[in-house]
Structure formats: C-alpha cells, structure tokens
Amino acid sequence: MKKKVIKAVFPAAGLGTRFLPATKASPKEMLPIVDKPMIQYAVEEAQRCGIKEFIMVTGKSKRAIEDHFDSAWELEENLKKKGKEEMLKEVQRLSQLQFAYIRQGNPLGLGHAILRAEPFVKDEPFAVLLSDDIIDPDDDLLARMIKIYERYNTTVLALQRVPRNEIHRYGIIAGREVGNNIYKITDMVEKPSPSSAPSDIAIIGRYILTPDIFSYIQKTPPGKGGEIQLTDALKALLKRRAVYGYLFDGRRYDAGDKLGYLKATVELALKSPAVSKGFREYLKSVASRIQKES
Ligand code: G1P
C-alpha cells in the first residue's frame, strides 16, 4: 500500500552568511517576516498539507528555533493573566505540533543534512522544505506536489523558471513536459554556469522524496562547493527511477537573499490583516516620493 506523506524535513543548519551580521548569533531561520520567523511560514505550509511530524536539522547557534516551537510556560501564564486569549492561542498552537530535532554537526551540504534525518524518516516518503524559499501562503504548491507523488508514487521536485543571471544559484533540470506543468526530469546539474545549463528551469526549495534517496546520498561524493549535494544524489536516482517536477508559476521569494527578504516582507505585510491597510497607504506615499525623485 502507498504510504501517505506525513513527515517533513526542514534543513536549518546553514550559516546564513548572506545575512551577516544579523545571523552572527541568531539563526537566519528566525529572522522575522512581519510577525513570524521565516521558518514558521514553512512549518505552517507543511501543516496545511497534512504533515504531522516536523523534523528539523539544526546546528550550532540554532537553539532559538527549538524554543520558538516549544511551549513557553511563563509567557502563557502572563498572557492568561492579561486576558490576551487570541495571542495565547496563537502561541500554544505551535507547541502542539510534533517536532524532532537533529544536529547536522558539520555543515557538509543539503544532501548531508537530509541524510541526518534518516533515523526519523525511516522508510516513509517525506517532504523537504527549505525555509528561505517563501511560497505565497495562498498558494497550494506543496499540496499539488503531494498529489503528483500520490499519482506517480515517486520523487517530485518543485520547479520554477529563473532569469539567466540567477541560474548559477540553483539546481537546474532538463526534462520534458508530460502533463499540465508536470515534467519528467531527464537530467539535473547543481549550480551550473548559464552557458552550460540544460535549461532555465530551477529546482526550488520544496521536494517530495522517497526513502531510497538516503542510499544514494550515502554514495554521493562532495560536489559543487565541496558539499554533498542533494541534486547529485537525485541525478543518480534518476537513472533507476522516474523523477517528476512540478513547474510552479506562483509567487516565491528567496528570503535567504537581502532583496528577496525585503520583497517577502512587503508582500506578506500587504496580506497581513494587522498592518495591511496602513502599510498599503505608506507604500503609496513612498512610491510617489520615489517617482518625484527620479
Ligand atoms: C539548494 C539546492 C539547489 C536548489 C536551491 C533552491 O541550494 O542545492 O539545487 O536549487 O536550494 O533554493 P542552496 O540555496 O541551499 O544553495
């Protein structure tokens, strides 16, 4: 019988060097976007798709992530006393989810981080969410990927076309479209130069993987940047088993990058009931000022 996707792995051990000095002592994943840390958006996205077990692969200086998703007795008592029921519910909601934490040890790459999750994933299919890729919360990318997984019973990657000058930042695929935005992948390369890239279709930070990926990662030697790359393990898997991709045409923000982070903040603030009205007015005034200046 086919197993349902109820586990998700969140690699969160990276050093966040693109965000220094903010990330010197605090995890990148805890940088707030409006009123939630970045990683909470990914956790809530997974939760909306029926994920029940949240497996975090963390590292040094990442304790704040564990605290964030834990219950906070003193804070909860304080909110209770003050009658702040809404806020109390919001704070308690997160700690009711089931989390597991593993340390990556040496940050040897995305493939290595995922391999660390094997004792928790065991022999089940699982989702991987890279929390600095923020997907518009109104989009159902992960749910669609799970449906494709259920149909083909194999690996599914999220894909998006990227401009030529960004190709070197992604895993890039070759493939042919076999259905509406569904690709059968025939090759992939981690962070190629634009001239050697097989297409302009990038792998973005959502994956549905099957447990056989672990044995492929184990056999994967260090690749681009001296790291054990998930893309290389998937490329080896591809020779034995079909791998599909879903071409996403919705909104995604690379919040691991300063400009992407600011875009995510603006877009999510515009959707936030708490600030959207005032923020929209403010943005209009900024836009008209900029127009006058230019
Ligand atoms: C990782 C993957 C890469 C993928 C990207 C998506 O790279 O290695 O294949 O395209 O995530 O965000 P990273 O951004 O960790 O360098």
Give a description of the structure:
- The protein has a single domain (7-257), classed as Spore Coat Polysaccharide Biosynthesis Protein SpsA, Chain A, CATH 3.90.550.
- It contains 11 helices and 13 strands.
- The protein has helices at residues 38-48, 63-68, 73-81, 85-95, 110-116, 118-121, 141-152, 213-218, 230-238, 258-271, 276-293, and strands spanning 7-11, 32-33, 36-37, 53-58, 98-103, 126-129, 133-135, 156-161, 171-179, 182-190, 201-209, 244-247, 252-254.
- The chain has a 9-stranded mixed sheet, sandwiched between helices.
- β9 and β10 (182-190) form a beta hairpin.
- It is globular.
- The model has no long low-confidence stretch (mean pLDDT 94).
- It binds 1-O-phosphono-alpha-D-glucopyranose.
- 1-O-phosphono-alpha-D-glucopyranose binds at residues 110, 130, 133, 170-171, 190, 202-205, 229-231.
Strand content: 15-25%
**What is the number of strand segments?**
13
Helical amount: 25-40%
Biggest β-sheet strands, sense, barrel: 9 strands, mixed
Count of structural domains: 1
Overall pLDDT, averaged?
Answer: 94
Structural class by helix and strand composition: alpha/beta
**CATH architecture grouping:** Alpha-Beta Complex
- From N to C, what is the helix and strand string? EEEHEHHHEHHEEHEEEEHHEEHH
How far apart, in Å, are the first and last alpha carbons? 62 Å
Which compounds are bound in this model? 1-O-phosphono-alpha-D-glucopyranose
The CATH homology group name: Spore Coat Polysaccharide Biosynthesis Protein SpsA, Chain A
Shape: globular
